[in-house]
Design goal:
Helices cover 42% and strands 22% of the residues. The protein has helices at residues 47-55, 73-83, 92-113, 117-131, and strands at 3-4, 10-20, 24-33, 40-42, 64-67. Strands 1, 2, 3, 4 and 5 form a five-stranded mixed sheet that branches. The structure holds zinc ion. This is YgiT-type zinc finger domain-containing protein.
């Protein structure tokens, strides 16, 4: 889970609060940041969800706070990694991902057997977010 910065240094993954429009606080957004030149960027896997969230706010959003990890599996996984003191750039995070995917698939089977359409749709979305991966470059 690392990326090379334009300056040649390796970027590390962090969770950051993004402020939109000076009013909307979005907590726990996973970003890559470079310690050497201070460049930072939102990780590509979460961009569609972040832009979707922002687009949904409209042109004049009121003061509000979101927990990005409540609407994105990547962010949630990284929050979990942080709680468990797993550093995102280590192999351990790969294990967390595998774990999470397996747990979601188990729930998927359960939701299917219960014919719970709402739950199925939610799980499908979450699995889709995790399969959106381009990290091994
Ligand atoms: Zn840099």
């Amino acid at each position: 889970m690392r990326k090379k910065c334009n300056c040649g240094e390796m970027m590390t993954m962090k969770l950051r609060t993004v402020i939109y429009s000076g009013k909307v606080e979005i907590d726990n957004v996973p970003i890559f940041s470079c310690q050497s030149c201070s460049r930072s960027e939102v990780i590509p896997e979460v961009k569609p969800d972040l832009t979707g969230l922002i687009a949904g706010l409209g042109s004049e959003p009121g003061k509000q706070t979101f927990l990005f990890n409540e609407c994105n599996e990547w962010a949630d996984l990284l929050v979990e990694a942080k709680v468990n003191k797993v550093r995102p750039e280590t192999q351990d995070v790969e294990e967390l991902i595998t774990h999470r995917i397996n747990a979601l698939l188990d729930m998927y089977l359960l939701a299917q057997s219960l014919n719970d359409e709402t739950w199925l749709a939610d799980l499908k979305k979450r699995l889709g977010q995790l399969s959106r991966r381009q990290l091994h470059t």
